[in-house]
């Protein structure tokens, strides 16, 4: 029976105790890469049913269209349609001049029955040389893992050395360490490569790499979904949702296609998680179905139109994860919404089809937003200010720093900032009091939960994993100080939302601009929702 990932989150310490028992020898039968029995059976049924995605993929291959990733496309076509001509094309391409280790591994694994012994030996030699190259980023490590899995029968240790190094040294000692310290673990555009690795390792070694960072992966689907600008981009083949980017100029449609491919692979990896079901609802709109030569392959490989999804219109309009510092907020789920994002130290505003990138490092005066106040710390080590709102966000402090917090007529308590250096204080309505904060010199192992004495249930949140739910009126504001940024959309219980009529695409209007403004106001939120993860960590 499959264990829901939510249970893995709670049981993470138990799984960590069994890592010594992991076996990295590969004894599974080909195809080993991305096409387990259940998945391959689904794809072959899609061909029998002549589904829309199969017809698009078949038309490109049968029509001889130039494929950006020919090895992947021809090998997949062979596995689904049993077309040996496609397999021979894939093998000939792989033993040729290409150095694409990932695609060569897929061809070796998927097209082995068609390749001659001489072709198999030649391709295996190329793959073994690729394994010897130095370790690298997610794409490189994923390709190395796929290669070791594909070559396992030819390797003396059945792939154990390479796979153990990828999982234990690169993943757990490097990437997970970055996740746990709030650093960006890998570029967003490499998310798809990561999910190929996750699928391949789980299918063959029965190891779920997410168990090393369960909280991160629990929120990743919604983080990825909300990190898209509201307006779609109309291309010749289909419409694209545009993922966040920082360069000047038009969106990169390759990035847009691979962003959708990553989402499809996320849902396929854990279709039962509520976060994945919202993502499935986001994906299953025919106008975003990828029909181009690059995207159609991934669309057919991963999409499951029979998987039920939840309406993403029911997601909060504000996503904030104190563990990563990512904040994505929008005025609505309509395509003409105003969108604000803070990610990896960058602050952007999307409005009326334009991206505005705000300059980091500028100071800002205290900003009132309904019953909340945002203010910049004048000194990272100590400050005094007046709190006259239900929530006060102190920006620009030391990330994950411990502070003594003293409120007038209250006892001293200890709190911790989140990964972005933000301290969150909650007060009852009508509060107007002085607050003093001072950074602690010693590094305490625990942070006590402090409670106020201003009334029943009044609580100042200390470092914890609990969400802080606030109830305010509705004007979002952007504030920035010394690279520490917080975007707040004021929140209350969600209302039902309705879809709007399609809006025009961003097209040529989308562009990245520089701005010297230190703060910017956005239009009033028409829908107020609960922010999921605002907490002091």
* Rg result: 25 Å
* Form type: globular
- Classify the beta-strand content into a percent band: 15-25%
Oligomer: single chain
Determine the fraction of residues in helical runs and give it as a percent range.
25-40%
- The SS-based structural class is alpha+beta
With strands numbered from the N-terminus, the spatial order across the biggest sheet is 3-4-5-6-7-20
> The biggest beta sheet, please?
6 strands, mixed
Q: pLDDT average, as an integer? A: 79
Description:
The protein is α+β, with helices and mostly antiparallel strands. The chain has 15 helices and 21 strands. The strands form 6 sheets. It has a 6-stranded mixed sheet, covered by helices on one side. It has a 4-stranded mixed sheet with strand order 8-9-11-14, with no helix packed on it. Strands 10-15-12-13 form a 4-stranded antiparallel sheet, with no helix packed on it. Helix 9 (138-150) packs parallel to helix 11 (191-205). The chain is globular, with a radius of gyration of 25 Å. The protein starts with a helix and ends in a 16-residue tail after the last strand.
Summary tags:
6-stranded mixed beta sheet; alpha+beta; 537 residues; single chain
SSE order and pairing:
Layout: H1 5-10, H2 12-16, H3 37-49, H4 52-62, H5 70-81, H6 84-94, H7 101-110, H8 117-131, H9 138-150, H10 160-180, H11 191-205, H12 214-226, E1 233-234, E2 239-240, H13 253-269, H14 274-283, H15 295-302, E3 318-321, E4 326-330, E5 339-343, E6 346-351, E7 354-358, E8 367-369, E9 372-376, E10 382-387, E11 391-395, E12 402-407, E13 413-416, E14 423-426, E15 433-439, E16 450-451, E17 459-460, E18 477-481, E19 484-488, E20 512-515, E21 519-521
Parallel strand pairs: 7-20, 9-11
Antiparallel strand pairs: 1-2, 3-4, 4-5, 5-6, 6-7, 8-9, 10-15, 11-14, 12-13, 12-15, 16-17, 18-19, 18-21
């Amino acid at each position: 029976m499959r264990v829901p990932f939510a249970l893995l989150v709670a049981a993470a310490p138990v799984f960590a105790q069994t890592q010594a028992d992991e076996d990295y020898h590969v004894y599974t039968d080909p195809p080993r890469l991305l096409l387990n029995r259940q998945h391959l059976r689904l794809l072959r049924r899609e061909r029998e049913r002549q589904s829309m995605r199969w017809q698009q993929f078949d038309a490109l291959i049968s029509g001889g269209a130039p494929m950006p990733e020919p090895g992947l496309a021809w090998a997949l076509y062979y596995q689904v349609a049993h077309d040996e001509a496609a397999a021979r094309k894939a093998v000939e391409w792989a033993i040729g001049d290409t150095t694409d280790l990932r695609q060569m591994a897929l061809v070796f694994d998927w097209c082995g029955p068609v390749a001659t012994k001489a072709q198999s030996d030649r391709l295996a030699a190329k793959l073994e040389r690729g394994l010897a190259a130095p370790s690298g980023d997610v794409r490189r490590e994923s390709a190395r893992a796929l290669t070791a899995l594909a070559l396992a029968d030819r390797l003396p240790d059945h792939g154990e050395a390479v796979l153990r190094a990828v999982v234990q040294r690169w993943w757990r000692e490097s990437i997970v360490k970055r996740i746990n310290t709030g650093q960006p673990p890998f570029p967003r555009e490499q998310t798809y490569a990561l999910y190929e690795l996750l699928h391949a390792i789980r299918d063959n070694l029965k190891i779920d790499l997410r168990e090393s960072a369960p909280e991160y992966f629990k929120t990743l689907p919604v983080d990825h979904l909300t990190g898209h600008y509201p307006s779609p981009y109309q291309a010749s083949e289909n419409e694209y949702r545009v993922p966040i980017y920082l360069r000047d100029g038009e969106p990169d449609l390759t990035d847009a296609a691979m962003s959708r491919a990553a989402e499809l692979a996320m849902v396929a990896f854990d279709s039962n998680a509520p976060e994945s079901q919202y993502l499935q609802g986001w994906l299953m709109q025919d106008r975003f179905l990828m029909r181009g030569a690059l995207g159609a392959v991934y669309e057919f490989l991963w999409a499951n139109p029979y998987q039920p999804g939840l309406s993403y219109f029911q997601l909060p309009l504000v996503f904030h994860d104190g563990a990563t510092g990512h904040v994505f907020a929008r005025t609505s789920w309509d395509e003409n919404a105003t969108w604000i994002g803070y990610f990896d130290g960058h602050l952007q505003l999307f409005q009326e089809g334009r991206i505005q990138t705000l300059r980091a490092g500028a100071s800002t005066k205290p900003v009132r937003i309904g019953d909340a106040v945002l203010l910049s710390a004048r000194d990272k080590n100590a400050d005094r200010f007046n709190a006259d709102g239900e929530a006060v966000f102190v920006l620009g402090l030391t990330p994950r720093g411990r502070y003594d917090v003293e409120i007038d007529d209250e006892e001293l308590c200890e709190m911790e900032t989140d990964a972005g250096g933000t301290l969150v204080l909650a007060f009852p309505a009508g509060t107007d009091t002085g607050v003093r904060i001072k950074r602690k010199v010693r590094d305490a192992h625990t942070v006590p939960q402090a409670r106020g004495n201003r009334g029943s249930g009044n609580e100042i949140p200390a470092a914890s994993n609990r969400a802080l739910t606030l109830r305010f009126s509705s004007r979002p504001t952007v504030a920035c100080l010394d690279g520490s940024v917080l975007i707040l959309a004021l929140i209350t219980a969600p209302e039902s939302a309705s879809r709007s009529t399609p809006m025009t695409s961003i097209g040529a209007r989308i562009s990245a601009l520089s701005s010297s403004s230190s703060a910017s106001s956005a239009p009033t939120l028409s829908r107020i929702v609960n922010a999921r993860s605002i907490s002091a960590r």
